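job 3f2a | input accepted
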Amino acid sequence: MKAFAARAYGGPEVMALAALPEPEAGPGEVVVDVHAASVSPLDWMMRNGYFRPRSTDEFPRVFGADFAGTVKSVGQGVSGFSPGTPVYGESSPIAGGQGAHAERLLIAASRVHKMPRGLTFEQAATLPTAALTVLDGFWRCGPLQGKRVLVNGATGGVGHFAVQIASARGATVTAVCSADHAERARALGATQVIDQDAEDFTRLPRRYDILFDAQGTVDRESASRVIVRGGNFVTTLPVQSVGLAALLRRLLGGPKIIVAVPRGRPEDYAVLARLLAAGRVRPVVADVFPLERAHEAFAAQEAGRAVGKVIIRVGEPEPPVPAIHRYH
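job 3f2a | predicted structure (328 res):
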């Protein structure tokens, strides 16, 4: 099968199309014909070796956590899926498993979920890591009704879900993004927009109950300046100042630091499905590239200016899934 794989740690030059063995489903496993997979910062961070202490040094390596496709085959003991079933989910390339930037994906059946109705495969592939990360972060903040929420990176792959979910749960949302994307942020549910290129939001006098840093670029000290006493600082990447010192600051009224992660629990997928069905969450597809141009997909994501998620289209499904209206 064809895959976009890295032959070593490094920059974009270490990645290219490769031929890999066809996977076979073992007990408790599913083989998925991948039709679409997203590209996220985790992919180029893995390629650069950022997660090397937690990962593997075996190459070639295929990245890509999020996938959508159809079941090709199931292993012994797997129920609820049959060949042709539209599915989506999250693989585990950080832990050393194969990622989704390949024609087929071998994955534990527990990580596969039936695809919500009304989505294209490209839209479904935007969801697992990004949307579940947002659900986890906000769940640990408690009720959002009436809260003031600031989302940094509000129109990116994670941020556009953070704006929508916070708004759907009754928060007043302020978006931080470029001026070019201000109207899109408002369409997603933001009531105010801060131009990231013109103002440093950490130096403004406004205060928020929750700062959701969807870019993972805000440090603890900067976050503390814009969060009310006892508020929450949600980030998508680990931050410094953990342990006793962080606990002391929290006891003194400093922000609670929450590192949001996609836990992938069945109840999280159920919540996401309800939000989608109610029209409260709309996946935003920034651009779609075929597998043969996956290097362009990585470049588009790594540039950091994409609105929504960058997608790699791997194979054409048959029959196609009915599409919903794409956000513009």
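job 3f2a | The chain is about 25% helix and 25% strand.
job 3f2a | closed
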